[in-house]
Amino acid sequence: MRGVQTGKFPEYRPRRLRGSAALRALVRETDLNARQLILPLFARGGKKVRQPISSMPGCFQLSVDELVKECELAHGDGVSAVLLFGIPEAKDEKASGAYATNGIVQRAVRALKKEFPDLLVVTDVCLCEYMSHGHCGLVHKNSRGAEIKNDPTLKLLARAAASHAEAGADLVAPSDMMDGRVRAIREELDRRGFDQTPIMSYAVKFASAFYGPFREAAESAPKFGDRRSYQMDAANGNEALREAALDVAEGADILMVKPALSYLDLIYRVKTEFRYPTAAYAVSAEYSMIKAGAEKGWIDEKAIVMESHLAMRRAGADIIITYWAREIARWLKP
Ligand code: PBG
C-alpha cells in the first residue's frame, strides 16, 4: 500500500468514497433491520381498552384483547419482539401484582404466546408499577427517612421473573437496578426448571429525566424521593462498566444501556468491553421530544428517527428497544 505523502503534490490523498447510491450502499457499515427491534407495550385490565398516553402520542395502555390486536398488527409490520409492562388494578407495599400468577403481565404473556407462538415476548421485571409508593424495591422507613431495602427485594424480583417464565415469557428483563438481582433471578429460574430462559439485564440504567413520560404511561412515578439511590449518576461512565461487569458475572445474557441517545458512549464502551449482545433502550422522552417537534412541524420525524436509531446501531447496539418499532419496520420495507 502506498503511504500518505506529505510533499507539495501528494501522490495519494485519502478521501471519502463518493459516488452513486449503489457505491454508497456497498461501503455502508451499519444498517437498521426490523429483526433488531423490540416494541415496548403497556398492558392493563379491562376489555376493549385503548387508553391514550398523553405525553407519548401514538402509545396506549392496552387491555389484553387490544394487546393481542396490536401484536398482530406489529407482526404484520415485521416486528418480531415485544417488551411488556403491566399496569395492575391494585398496588400495595409488597408489589403483589408483580408476581401474581394471574397478574396483568402473566395474563398478557399467556394470551400472546397462545395467539403468536413465534412472537418473542420479553417481560420487564420490576416492582415500581406494582408498589403503592412507586419505588422499584421494598421501602423501609426509619429515623433517617425512607430507605430502599436491596436484599429483601431480590426474592420478590426473582419470584416475578419466574412467574413470567411460567406464563411463557421468552426473555426476562430486570430493570430495577437492585444489586445482585441478576444472580437471584438466574438461580430462581434454574431452580424452577427455566434454565433455558435468558436474562436481558438493564445493566447500565441511569437515573434519568428521560423516563418522565413513561411514568405517566406506567403510572409508576415515585410518591416520595427519587431513584438516585439505585439508578446511576449520569456523570459516571466507568461505574457503568463496573455495573455491567457485575451483571455479566451474575449470568446476564444480554446487556442493556438506557437511555440511548445521551449515552451512546456507553453503548460503545459496553459493546467493546464485553462483546455481549447489547441492547439500547430509546426511552419515553426520546420518543416524546421527537414527536413534539414533529407535531409542531419543526423537524422531519421519519428522517430523525432513522438517523438516531442508526446512530445507536453504529455505537454498537445489536438490539434497539423503541416505541417506533412498528413505524421503522414499515419504513424499512422496500
Ligand atoms: C421500570 C422502568 C422504567 C423504564 C423502564 N422500566 C422507569 C423508571 O425506571 O423510572 C423507563 C422506560 C422509558 O422511559 O421509556 N423501573
List the helices and strands and how they pair.
Layout lengths: L20 H6 L10 E8 L5 E3 L7 E4 H14 L3 E7 L8 H4 L4 H12 L4 E6 L12 E5 L2 E5 H18 L3 E4 L6 H11 L8 E6 L6 H6 L20 H13 L3 E5 L5 H11 L3 E5 L1 H12 L5 H15 L3 E4 L2 H8 L2
Parallel strand pairs: 1-3, 1-4, 1-12, 4-5, 5-8, 9-10, 10-11, 11-12
Antiparallel strand pairs: 2-3, 6-7
- Estimate the mean pLDDT confidence: 93
Structural class designation: alpha/beta
- What is the alpha-carbon Rg in Å? 21 Å
Shape: globular
Largest sheet: 10 strands, mixed
Share of helix, binned: 25-40%
**Proportion of residues in extended strands:** 15-25%
Report on the structure:
The chain is 39% helix and 19% strand. With 334 residues, it is of the alpha/beta class. It has helices at 21-26, 64-77, 96-99, 104-115, 150-167, 181-191, 212-217, 238-250, 264-274, 284-295, 301-315, 325-332; strands at residues 37-44, 50-52, 60-63, 81-87, 120-125, 138-142, 145-149, 171-174, 200-205, 254-258, 278-282, 319-322. A hairpin with a 7-residue loop joins β2 (50-52) and β3 (60-63). The strands form 2 sheets. Strands 1, 2, 3, 4, 5, 8, 9, 10, 11 and 12 form a 10-stranded mixed β-sheet that branches. A two-stranded antiparallel sheet has the order 6-7. It starts with 20 loop residues before the first helix and ends with a helix. The protein is globular. It binds ligand PBG. Residues 124, 126, 128, 136, 175, 211, 214-215, 227, 283-284 line the site of ligand PBG.
